Amino acid sequence: MNVVKELSVCGGRLVKLSHNSTSTKTCMNVNVYLPKQYYAQDSSRSRPIPTVVYLSGLTCTPDNASEKAFWQFQADKYGFAMVFPDTSPRGDQVANDPEDSWDFGQGAGFYLNATQDPYAQHYQMYDYVHKELPQTLDAHFNKNAAAELDFLDNVAITGHSMGGYGAICGYLKGYAERRYKSCSAFAPIVNPSNVPWGQKAFKGYLGDERAQWQAYDPCALIKNVKRVGDDKVLIHVGDEDPFLEKHLRPELLLEAAKSTSWENYVQVKKVHGFDHSYYFVSTFVPEHAEFHAKNLGLI
Amino acid sequence: MNVVKELSVCGGRLVKLSHNSTSTKTCMNVNVYLPKQYYAQDSSRSRPIPTVVYLSGLTCTPDNASEKAFWQFQADKYGFAMVFPDTSPRGDQVANDPEDSWDFGQGAGFYLNATQDPYAQHYQMYDYVHKELPQTLDAHFNKNAAAELDFLDNVAITGHSMGGYGAICGYLKGYAERRYKSCSAFAPIVNPSNVPWGQKAFKGYLGDERAQWQAYDPCALIKNVKRVGDDKVLIHVGDEDPFLEKHLRPELLLEAAKSTSWENYVQVKKVHGFDHSYYFVSTFVPEHAEFHAKNLGLI
């Protein structure tokens, strides 16, 4: 793990890292924000600082959300760290969309493990984000001391658009072992098997057999995951989001949740006048931060 | 004035406008954020909503600060509107740097009125920002009602880097008529006559005669402007700003202010670990917002 850059932001530090991933067989970039509490030498802190993982949308690098979503103020407010992974493997050796579009290939890894050539070799983003990266961050940041940052146990996940999809998918697939304690999403793709962005990605990465797609589709997963306690999923979407009707369709997740343990525990808040941009995301980050802070035991 | 786009942000609306400027003889873009108070039908509001003008740095459009500086939450908190002008005239007909660099020409108008060919024709950013634009915004937003937004009288100015320079310059040049009630800057160029960015700009736009430069140099202006009341200028700069020693040199403004009415009324806060980016700007926007809110009579 190489520290590419580290700088002051709000009351803490943003650390830009890169490392060679065994999952993607590429060099991956990731940004980590360490809140002011990390530097406060607070001997009264009884537990390590929890983390919130933010998965970004199509075309993004770790920098987009770091610069535009304004999680940092919230991280300082409640005392959690932020992890901003990249959206795909990158590099000349990494297969890209033959049509060179922005909704498939590099910048559009869809947080799944590809099974189809030529993508299977590098596009192993599910294993990377949900397994390898947390272990790697734990080894890097906690190597010299009692664990001060919790990348493995007390962790929340959220994301935007393709990343909102990745967050819900990872939350549900890891639910049995409580991989994540909390999940929210901004304008997520909730039913990739049935919308153009998702179908293009699933066909390319997973092949033509739709049965294989179910393992990564939140609307299929939610039917087979038994909810416990007060767990719920918080979703915001803008009613002027240009992708709402064609690609996002959050109502499909509500329908899928009906007559399951998740009925009434998936909350979709449609907000007036907001589009798909980071203006929308940043506006509702404070509400999502409070939601995760509660679920992580910070308030 | 054309509304190009309008969308919800935080509790208010961001309005992206374009208009044909008589100063620059080009089509200019400008973003305006109207805070939640503008929409609140508050009959108890005794005065129109004041505005804070944010001048951006080299290469920026009105969108950079709108997306990354995060003034909007602060505007909602205190009840002021934001104005984000562009940094220069733009278009194929607008003369550019022969070397096509990013620190002169389009995206680098330095908020002054050029006197030299071929720049004098369009680079009239001083008149545009400080005179024409407020009048145009007033005419657009206040045409149908009692003035609800104050672009002309109760106005603050701030900016980043080249825009921090533009803010201090405009504040001091307009001080006699109290054009602006409040001034702050993030990592400003304070003495353009004596640093490379400023010298290149002044030479290109104003010509070789250094005497002509004094009319736009804060370190010259401050000696001839008599401060009144409690007026002061608030400046932040990061100690890891890569442009600090070569282009910014805020200590030169403190030196220039010595033995003038501004001595002890220019406050330069050097903050540890911050660079020149919007991570730096956004971190200190809350402090600047509170400073301006006080000076605008909002708190």
Question: Can you walk me through this structure?
Answer:
The structure is a homodimer of 299-residue chains. By secondary structure, the first copy, chain A, is α/β, with parallel strands linked by helices. Chain A has a single domain (2-295), classed as Alpha/Beta hydrolase fold, catalytic domain (Rossmann fold, 3-Layer(aba) Sandwich). Helix content of chain A is 31%, strand content 22%. Chain A is built from ten helices and nine strands. The first copy, chain A, has helices at residues 62-68, 71-78, 125-141, 162-173, 196-206, 210-213, 218-221, 244-248, 251-257, 278-295, and strands spanning 2-9, 12-20, 27-34, 49-55, 81-85, 149-159, 182-186, 233-238, 266-271. In chain A, strands 1-2-3-5-4-6-7-8-9 form a nine-stranded mixed sheet, sandwiched between helices. In chain A, α2 (71-78) runs parallel beside α10 (278-295). Chain A is globular and about 55 Å long. The two termini of chain A are 32 Å apart. The model of chain A has no long low-confidence stretch (mean pLDDT 96). Chains A and B meet through β1, α1 and α10 of A and β1, α1 and α10 of B. Chains A, B: Its EC number is 3.1.2.12. Chains A, B: It comes from Saccharomyces eubayanus.
Write a concise keyword list for the protein shown above.
homodimer; alpha/beta; Rossmann fold; 9 strands; globular; Esterase-like (chains A, B)
